[in-house]
Amino acid sequence: MSVTRSLGWAGAVALAALLLAPVISLGFTASEGGGELWPHLAAYVLPQAIRDTALLLAGVGLLVIGLGTATAWLVAAFDFPGRRLLEAALLLPLAMPTYVVAYAYLDLLHPLGPFQVGLRGLLGLSSPRDLALPDLRSLPGCSLLLGFVLYPYVYLPTRALFLMQAGSLLEAARTLGAGPWRSFLRIALPLARPAIALGTGLALMEALNDVGAAEFLGVRTLTVQVYATWVNRSDLPGAAQIALVMLAAVVAVVGLERLARAGRGYAGGARRHTAGARRRLDGWRAGAALALGTAPVAIGFLVPAGSLGLEAWRRIDASGLPDALAAQALNTVYYAGLATAVTVLAGLAVAAVPTLLSARAGRLLIGAAGIGYAMPGTVLAVGLLGPLALVEAGLFEAGLTTARVGLGTGAALVIAYALRFLTVTVGASEAGFARIPRTIPDAARVLGRGRLATLVTVQLPLAWPAVLSGGLLAFVDIAKELPVTLLLRPLNVETLSTHLYGEAARGTYEDGAVAAVLIVMIGLLPVTLLLRLDRNVIGPGRLAGEEPRTGRG
Predict the structure, then answer these.
(1) Cα distance between residue 370 and residue 379, in whole Å
(2) What is the DSSP letter of 275?
(3) How would residue 287 be classed by pLDDT, with cut points 50, 70 and 90?
(4) What is the per-residue pLDDT for 501?
(5) Which phi and psi angles does 279 have, rounded to 5°?
(6) 430-461 burial by CB neighbour count: b if 16+ within 10 A, else e?
(7) What span, in angstroms and rounded, lies between the C-alpha atoms of 123 and 135?
(8) Regarding beta strands 78-79 and 279-280, do their DSSP bridges make them parallel or antiparallel, or are they unpaired?
């Protein structure tokens, strides 16, 4: 075995160990709590947390399935004025972190906020007690807000699948006399089940990871309890025990998603709908379709973004920019940029394992790379403390007394970011390499270049657009990440997300509006990228993704 391959295997084993370390560490940390802690958690903490988490996931799941599938079918099966713009606008809620939306609506719907003040003025009422509206700080309120923000996770793959595979089948159904509603229920919806399940699983993972919106709205989910147990009660073993319960919830969500997709493959040609394949709507039907499609965009993006923009303008006009905003923005860009560089390099290394080492090792490592994304940020943070402490102790024993990678250091934050979003860059790099014809690297090998040289000088230059897009998506996800940042940030370091969290906790909404607007502007970057990819990849005569495999998948 060559030195290069030996080093490659050693690096792959080390990365796999690092990816699995948080899961193993959780068990050890939880066992340190002693037997007296678990009965307290089981009696007073976990019942409400499990109930709230289960109800929240159920509500969010139903809402994202309904909104995502309905909007995907609306723009895929019907043609009406404004459809093209609506097709793109339906992605905009992806730019809104859930905690930013909760922050905006808490201010907007407060009894002394603009909505209720204006409504009382229209009704001739003077006191907030005269108009009792449902409280947003509730489990239903949290479910609604998360659902209207996360539905694009279902909309995007379901729309792509409708455009890919349902065209010829729906045309055949129409010739046999089936109407639009029957065609949707009997043909399009069953075929779209794998895409709906995939999108719903991703949305539920995001809902489970949320800590800001749930805490702002008074919902005591498992994620909130992990944070509260660790930070407020200084009880790390108790937080680890709750985190183990969260891992079980993650496994349940992944299992349900796989079960929903089991045995659902398809065969045959796939093509995009042409304009003639859509049913034309005119008059009031066109207006109703546009209004129905615009409602999720308005609730999930336009209303909170407009409210935050107005509040930010008032804050700047009255007092100027907050003094600490520049430093917080710089911290956000610095840590997100550093973590993105690490994540992209690690993603390239993982995606190259099938080429440099073996296909089997590559599949195992690529699967392990998804562990961090599947784990909620609070769980990952708790699980990393033990391994990072061991590494720091080893560095100290080796004489590197100034090296710090434990809790409260920038290194710990960067490592946690990289592990959490590694799968994003791995997937992008893997897709970039997969689109290179095999004849190109084969020709380089015939000309005498080794595997590593071929990868660096031939394949990587051809795959760089995909790698760059993966890096951009990772940067945005890292910049918006709240749970990991709250728990592992260095002392006296504030980012835009932690600043916004602090302002919301204090109830000073106007002071956090500028930071919220900046976070939304950062979040628009991947939406712009998705729109560009959508235009280039899902264009006329092209497919919305890879060629579907024949048979059952």
Answers:
(1) 14
(2) G
(3) very high
(4) 86
(5) -85, 125
(6) bbbbeeeeeeebeebeeeebebeebbeebbbe
(7) 19
(8) parallel
